[in-house]
Amino acid sequence: MAAMRHRHDGSMMKKSQARPLTGDDGFRDGPLDAAQLASFHAASHLVVRGLFDADEAAEIARWADEVQAWPELAGRYMMYFEHTEGGGRILNRMENLLPWHAGFRQLAGGARLQGACAQLFGEPAVLFKDKINFKLPGGGGFEPHQDAQAGWLRYAGLHITALVTIDPATIANGCLEMADGFAGTQGLIGSEWQPLDGGQLAGLRWQPIEAQPGDVVFFDSFIPHRSAPNRTDAARRVLYFTYNRASEGDHLARYYADKRLSYPPDIEREAGREYRYRV
Question: Sign of torsion, CA 174 140 48 58?
């Protein structure tokens, strides 16, 4: 895959130039067939095994190694940390990587991810946000939530995320668990900024999605999902690219400007001010 062979541009200090990720070509050239499209629209999620082959998955993992080793820098990519039960400080996630990494930027704009999401939308897609959840050994899980609860509806009415598996994801290390039998057309079932409670989740079944490197999970912004802590001695890293319909506008810059104000990365936080992750 030619686009996958581009390495990091060699300087994370210099912002890379790139064309906008509009996804027009991918809308015509996406990888999903009619059965996969129907499955997604019936279940609000779709698992595509081996969308990236072993060599491609290994290169994505190398890119994750690269950014994981980057230093904390204010005003650039966004690094968030957590504390383990033993009191250690470990990397939890990184966001806004694409301006600083050519490989991830090309991956986000390719037909297999952006193009697939355009197929799922039925129109061209534009990137909304990017993220790596590292879930290192001892890393915490995520309570049941809908992505749209995190204030996303102020930007667009629907988002679709492409989750690219970097490391093997298992029940033991806290793989993604999706609400089975949920139709995304139901919209929000909870309040913004609040994890879902038992009453809101009544009748839903949790489906663990164990995955291997190169597997991709597509899911919309309304399907409830969760994950457990990582109780193993190996990382469970996953890459997320989230898109919205191009017809609803390009909100990536505004989203990250807003997030820096409301929930900045650790290095940009004011001393003495409390910051709390909600959903």
Answer: negative
Task: Mention every residue, 6+ apart, whose C-beta is less than 8 A from residue 276.
Answer: none
Q: Where does the chain have alpha helices with state H?
A: 24-29, 34-43, 54-68, 102-108, 116-121, 252-262
Residue 210 has pLDDT above 80, yes or no: yes
Q: What is the DSSP string of 135-165?
A: --TT---EEEE-GGGGTGGGT-S-EEEEEEE
**Helices and strands in the chain, H and E counts:** 6, 11
**Segments making up each domain of the chain, as ranges:** 32-263
Name the CATH topology of 32-263. Answer: Jelly Rolls (2.60.120)
pTM over 0.85: yes
Within 8 A by CB and 6+ apart from 78, the residues are: 94, 95, 96, 256, 259, 260, 264, 265
pLDDT per position as a tens digit, 90-147: 999 999 999 999 999 999 999 999 999 999 999 999 999 999 999 999 999 999 999 9
